[in-house]
Amino acid sequence: MQSIEIGGVAVEPLVHFANRPLAPAAFFPGHDPAVWRAHRSWLAPDHWDPDADRVGITVQSWLLRDAGTTVLVDTGLEPGVPAGLDPAGVDLVVCTHLHGDHIGGNVLAGGAPAYPNARYLFAAADLAFFDPATLVEEPGRSAAAYRRSIAPILDAGLAEVWDGRRALTPSLTLVAAPGHTPGHGVVELASGGERALFAGDALHSPAQILHPEVSSCFCHDPAEAARTRLRLLGWAADHRALVVPAHFGGGRAVEVRRAGDGYAVHRWAFPAAAGGGRVTGRGDGVVGARRPRGEDPE
């Protein structure tokens, strides 16, 4: 898999699989289907299959190497370690939130921790929200997933519970970004004058750059998720930071710019892999989304 450097940090996507689970109207309740048709030229085929009318997503982890520390952001849906990755060499595992497709690879098929030398970072708010003792089963909220992928890490003494923000390395900081789940977090990168934001599920599709007020059907608090997304996009645009969501296929990571009262796609980080590479530098899709300005995504 192609990798890039952002400042002094090596960044590599570890792709688990891609699929097309839902139509846009189901994935993003209340979103006008005409938006997808209007931007077919760059949403298709990586982010939308217009013939089947299905949203395209990728399940992937991000491997970050900074100052001698290896950080794995999310672990995918299934137990096990991605091919070619030395599990003993991973120092920190960051679960941006505790949905099953971000925690499944915390363990091996037999239930042992997949990364025995790592500290696993779980947000306090998500541990409470997904605790089987009080959990109400609903899409994305599963006692079975917790018992399979979280409990073994807690039992092994490898978990570190965080809240608010937590420095990971000299260039990487974990910051709370609630809404998708109560404890959802993002990883901010600042190195050598360059910035990036590993955004987890703050965005599921680049169509949300055009309409950040629209949340996915998997967001437990859609209104707060939208406020968080607006804040993160504003910060990323102001700092020329790459936005690196968990589920973007194609170009995977995107630079956004302010355009009028909204945001536009400026360039993709992996253009050779992206149908979306066609929008590089064009600023397609500006819409009138109101957004607050801010100096920090916290």
UniProtKB/TrEMBL annotation:
Signal peptide: none annotated. The keyword Transmembrane does not apply. Keywords: Hydrolase, Metal-binding, Zinc. Residues 58-247 form the Metallo-beta-lactamase domain. It comes from the Bacteria. Transmembrane segments: none annotated. PANTHER family: QUORUM-QUENCHING LACTONASE YTNP-RELATED (PTHR42978:SF6), QUORUM-QUENCHING LACTONASE YTNP-RELATED-RELATED (PTHR42978). Belongs to the metallo-beta-lactamase superfamily. This is MBL fold metallo-hydrolase.
